[in-house]
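Page header: ASSEMBLY MODEL / three components / 861 residues total.
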Amino acid sequence: MSHHLVEVRDLHFTYPDGTDVLKGVSFRITHGESVALVGANGAGKSTLLLHLNGYLTPTRGEVRIGDAPLTRATVVSARRAVGMVFQDPDDQLFMPTVFEDVAFGPLNAGLPPNEIEHRVVSALERVGMSHLRNRPPYKLSAGEKRAVAIATVLAMSPDVLVMDEPSAHLDPRGRRRLIELLASFKHTKIIATHDLEFVVELCSRVIVLDDGKVMAEGPTVELLNDEALMLAHGLERPHSLRHLHPH
Amino acid sequence: MDELGRLDTPVHRLDARAKVITTLIFIVVVMSFPRYEVSALMPFFLYPFTLLALGRIPFGYIFRKILIAVPFALVIGMFNPLLDRQTIASVGAWSISGGWLSFASIMLRFFLTVSAALALIACTGIHRLGAGLERMCVPQVFVVQLLFLYRYLFVVADEGARMMRSMELRSAGPRSLRLRVYGSLVGHLFLRSMDRADRVYRAMVSRGFSTVGGSASGGNGEIRVLCQTSFRWTDWAFIGGWTAFFAVARIWNLANALGRMVAGGGS
Amino acid sequence: MHMADALINPAVGGTMWIVTAGLIAYCARKVKQTMNDKLVPMMGVLGAFIFAAMMINFSIPGTGSSGHLGGGLILTILLGPYAAFLAISSVLVVQAFFFADGGLLALGCNIFNLGFFPAFIAYPFIYRAIARDEHGTLRAWIAAIVAAVVGLQLGAFGVVLETKASGISELPFGAFVLLMQPIHLAIGIVEGLATAAVVAFVARARPEALFAARADEESQNSLRPVLIGLLIATVIVGGAASWFASTHPDGLEWSIVKVSGKEEVSGTEDNLHKGLGRIQEKTAFLPDYGFKSTEPEAAPAEKTAAEPEPWPAISAGTSLSGIAGGLITLGLAGLIGFALKARHAGV
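Prediction written out in full:
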């Protein structure tokens, strides 16, 4: 069974205080795709992401990971399949050392100690942060924190990587490194972001979310070049695309 | 402090439990001296000094940390000279009241115990300490609580400091706030902390943390502190050696003995 | 109100360690039983919040001074007694270990004074009783102030009792009480105001947050084990303290033979003068305090000392050897330290 497939069907979500955040979202992301979820603040991106690993339960509609719907019974395997990298690495890195943080997921999965060690080492190597293994996470730079946060997820060997604003708070060099790192991954990727330049470099497809609904969906260059569409949903046509010929 | 805790020296490599136990024995022995004891306390400085030196911890740094905590001991201790004016000793032209003697003793003990505690932390580091405590049967919930608290201490403090800064930039007055403003500022800080706890929880759940569902979920709601330490002979030697030294220094006043030797040799 | 190790004797410190360790174990089990696994990060982050909140001051109405939040009451209101007790304990542990604020031996006392009273006395019997489920009303403000005052008064009294039982500080019981209680009355009112202000704001801004962190609300009778435990603890502490006070006035004076030729001095109020009398007898060759035999060697030694260090001298000779020996030992300890350090720097 391939877990690489992510499908959302007519997803509705209302917070307990009555706010309708998602009003019928549907999309399908297939194996190996790299898809950007763009939209202004409050469009419902983060809420949507929290459904993808079952942290929130839809009011209506369903999420399918692989070929199975996400239910209480499948939530454990879904969480293993979908690796979630949160916006603030300080929230994601809560253990005393980098090593323990990366080991947290594998430990919870009940893996044997030598397998955990192996996973941690290779995840840290993958993101180029092996030298930080005994450091406390909060002493790291923003870029290092981000890389380690990604390693914590990689150590669970997910099929799908879901990221919320991965380029936030990074300086240009850190951002460049992150782009290179993410581009090297074979995983299915779902990236929620405002950083449209980032999208241009990493994603082949874009889903525009506004007011809890999918407003547009299509190839990156085509959609982001649509000035009217971008402005209508609180976004902006990326500069890099202005210098490209639109055809 | 964390930087120091991460150093890799022979002292750092000792099992955290050995250092915790030895330090506790140290403190108990130091505090067991009668109240007017001064000279017999001196040999005990050897313990924190050795720990700091072998752990390559800068003395000045620890000393500054101790000084910060001095006022409390001073406040309580300073009543002794005022209240206990009976002269019980005299040195040369000075007659010394019991109050001053016990005051000096309090201050000495204070320096000893505080420096030992700081040396313990500086030579152990929070994560080793957490692992050690867990193996000393401290409830796991509490060990995890310590680690989480320590982890978010500076994160939340930074958040508070940023709020204070932006508030100060917009108010010409003094630092203290009116109660209403205070309530909303600290209340906001609380709400932000709650939000952060929520996000941390999300991140934990995303990586398989769950207390409900038991073994089916893979996780059983426990956070394991992953830090391999095992008790080796050096740890036993550390505890044993120091305990023996403490016992000797407790029974015989080494300082006086040494002094008599010197004075005797002089005369 | 954090007690330092220097004021506690091992008997009192040890007893309070055992009492608090028991409480922590009990609370840890309770928290685990709630199955609210959100509490794990919540307790940690809110502990950090208390740290940060203590840095922020507000001006006390009608006075020129300022105050800040105390930890105990507000954490209990936000987290419920069990989780709050653990959170307060962890805050005090970190303060003791990392900020040298409060001693290690005194840790048990400090956790008990600052954690037990607000969480298990002031909150259930006073705050809940007065405020019921109201927030931000006059009732809730009064509840917070009264609860904070009572919690702190009990805590301050705990400090007095523990210090007295240890017999290291010279302060008479009555004077100590008169010193501690009024100060903590003021601090309690301030803490109550701050607590109520924050709770009122949260109740207005996001009421659900007030209950989100709470472990399952306990019924009153689940407090019974805690109170029984407290009773037992009181008996133990009282027993131990009075035993030590009566048989070993000077704290834990193990029957160790003192071979150094020095005298131990007894300590409780009643025994003090007797003890001093004994000392005077021993220093018989200088019976008159007015008469001071000047020791030529001793005076310069005294001047070179960084602080005028007094010695429990029986004779001038002993005092000289005490000074010399003490300084030499201190020097030796320092020297060994620096030598070890230098060797390492060289490596």
